[in-house]
Amino acid sequence: MGTRVLRRIGVCGLGLLLAAVAVAESSWPQFRGHGARGHADGPPPPLTWDVESGENIRWSVPIPGLGHASPIVAGSKIFIATAIGKGAAELKTGLYGSPKPVDDEGEQQWVLLALDRATGQIAWGKTAVTASPASKRHPKSSHANSTPVTDGERVCVFYGTPGLFCYRVADGVQLWSKEFGLLSAGSYNLRAAEWGFGNSLSLHDGVLLVQADTQELGFIAAFDVTDGRQLWRRERDDVSTWSTPTVHVGAERSQVIVNGFRHIGGYDLRTGDPLWKLRGGGDVPVPTPFVADDLIFITNSHGLVSPTYAIELDAEGEIVPDYNALGRGEAPPKGIRWAKTKGGGYMVTPIVVDGRLYVLRNNGIFTVYDTRSGTELHQGRLSGSHAFTASPVAVGKRVYFTAESGEVFVVEAGETLEILARNPLGIQTLSTPAIADGTIYFRTRDSLIAVGETASETAASEMVTTEAVATSID
To answer: Would you say 49 and 126 are in contact if contact means Cβ atoms under 8 Å apart?
Structure first.
């Protein structure tokens, strides 16, 4: 093969590589971005901003209804799901333990919105279902908690009982939909305690993953994203979870990793066959598994044990931890690199930066571990007066932690967490933000805010009104 041809191939390969890098930088396709790791490439968003003055606010757009689904980004669009009721929806944040659900709220309209990333203008809005909810929600929850997922051509959203819907990114044309019956999430030992459905979607190479751990029916299933055809399904006997499945593709196998109480584990991506299984931990599994430094990190809380696990990628079979032994510092069973029995995350998915795992509890206490050894490096408190539900996201060593109050802590990740800035959004915020191309997108109780270094001359909030959004919804 001639040198000229080799050079041409090299240039083409470099072009494809650069294109792939550009796509990665400009997209945030699911909950916590690529691989649920919470990291974005490219330049970091601003260190400081001010919503009232408009400093570093590219645009702010009202979002009707109530929803905790995180924004996702693909190409020139950003997507967000919401549930619109007849009146103002109750939302009670903070640290409290009441399991009482919200009383009957009447008819809801489940909507997916597509916005233009540059301006915040509504590109399209699609109503999936209009009906009274089949189950109730917790006052800290919503009827639209599950984050959508996209491959750039299609965007899919899961509302629980109302169903799973897939749309064309370009114009919002519905491609297919599916229903699964009643999917009521809540406490396994107090049936009247209903929380609202919260499992988000995951997508890899055309395979759409649905985890639905609920009070009456539990399963994990894979579908062909092009037509909704079921590829495989496995029943799950577990408590209600709010976790999102994560796909990891390795040299030896590709697996779907899930959190749980009775069944933390991995399934073969192609067949759905169980690869490994771990029982035990907190009985309200919320944080999403993710892979970093060639280890699977899983945490959960609530109950007698609040563990954090570092699990080997080649784990196999039934893994049975002895929590008393682990608490005494004894070695974990085969398949687990290291484990801690206390201090696990309740609502917040941890993040890894430069070989350190940062686990944040919902009361603001955080613990830093060495990812390879599990050695505890530091423990502190991010804030003593804030509760946390949203998960952290990062660019480089700069990490953004969002409190339920709307206070955003920008920190420098090291052996400790050095707070660089605190920026209030001015309203309750429980959704995990998205980052792409140096802009961070916050979904608050009533709006979507784009924070970037260059503020537009005319804020989108002056152009896009609640009425304008409503008229854009089909």
So the answer is: no
